[in-house]
Amino acid sequence: MTMVFEVMSRGVRAVSPHASAEAAARAMDEWDMAFVPVCEDGKLVGVVTARDIAVRTIARGLPPSSTPVGYLMSANPCWCYEDQSYDEVLNRLDSRVPRRIPVVDRARRLVGLLSLGEAPTDFK
User: Would I find Chloroplast among this entry's keywords (predicted)?
Assistant: First the structure.
């Protein structure tokens, strides 16, 4: 049985809910990601996507340089524990889930990202 910690990416970076939308967009560009986890005191509190920034700031006329990520983020993102089995995670997700989800420890501290389309499914 493949466990999440065996296939997740480590060293994931996050932004603060107090960071600006502009700072989050720059982080996405620098880290080559379409979304970034949002953490406060190391704990996952949400995720913000490039679409969140475009739709929730630009379309609403909000200034990206001063609009906090916490105002734009999805506060209840899909996430999983590092000590869950990969199959268990797949079974509880539905088709609307993004390809990458944050991985947390039991204290809900961000420890990695799980790429759903890239994890091996034939480990023994």
Answer: no
